[in-house]
Amino acid sequence: MTFLTALIIIHPSTVNVKSKVEKLLLPYDYYIEVEPYKEYLDREELVKKINELKSMSEEEINKIAKGWEVEANNLEVLAKFELDWFDELIDGVDENGEYKMTTLNPDGKWDWYKFADMEGMTSRFFVPDIHTFAVKEIEFIPYAVVTPDGKWHELGEEAGLEAFVNKEIKGIEVMSEDEINWREKVRQIKSDFPDYLAVILHCHD
């Protein structure tokens, strides 16, 4: 679980900002229960995880295997464990592969969030404990943007993690193609709503 920064764009005539934000985010609440459906093991993710393990040293693999209490030479089982896919949770197998029955929201993006402000910026628009800003004032690139029509747009988990590692851990300012495309998309979204308001959230996912 991590935190992500989301930009919520709302109409400038919005009176109850908190209520509007709640309405826009509701479809993306992890804990909204839906009708039971099959969640399949992602074979592409499994192959990717196996390849990651293959690239590790024997010492690293043994350490991971010891933590899971499984054989180090069974990379498929180890990869499944790393993906939180355990045999005892599997409900069945069909033509599409192994699956679990779940009622978790497949569109879930957050389990809780808090309103934030932008350090050093004062706003002409203020709601108690909630800062709002003109979209055109926003200079930073968030991880996600929710537009007034309720659509969630995001950089993507893999690209976001890569960006975090490069910047915060490795200390290098190298942008992937996904990041470059995301920056352009954010700029386009902002240009579509220059006179709208924006609320900044820290979402826990």
What does this structure look like?
This protein has 205 residues and is α+β, with helices and mostly antiparallel strands. It contains six helices and ten strands; from the N terminus they run βαβαααβββββββααβ. Strands 1, 5, 6, 7, 8, 9 and 10 form a seven-stranded mixed sheet that branches. Strands 2-4-3 form a three-stranded antiparallel sheet, with no helix packed on it. β6 (125-127) and β7 (130-134) form a beta hairpin. α2 (43-54) packs across α4.
Number of helices: 6
Summarize model confidence as the mean pLDDT. 84
Shape: elongated
Q: How do the helices and strands follow one another from N- to C-terminus?
A: EHEHHHEEEEEEEHHE
What are the SSEs and their pairings?
Blueprint: E1 3-10, H1 17-25, E2 37-40, H2 43-54, H3 58-68, H4 75-82, E3 92-94, E4 97-102, E5 112-116, E6 125-127, E7 130-134, E8 144-146, E9 152-154, H5 157-169, H6 177-192, E10 197-204
Parallel strand pairs: 1-8
Antiparallel strand pairs: 1-10, 2-4, 3-4, 5-10, 6-7, 7-10, 8-9
Helix pairs in contact: 2-4
Provide tags for this entry.
single chain, 205 residues, alpha+beta, 2 domains, seven-stranded mixed sheet, 6 helices, 34% helix, 23% strand
Question: What's the short version?
Answer:
Strand 3 and strand 4 (97-102) form a beta hairpin. Helix 2 (43-54) crosses helix 4. The chain has two domains: 3-32 and 107-204, no CATH class; 37-102, no CATH class.
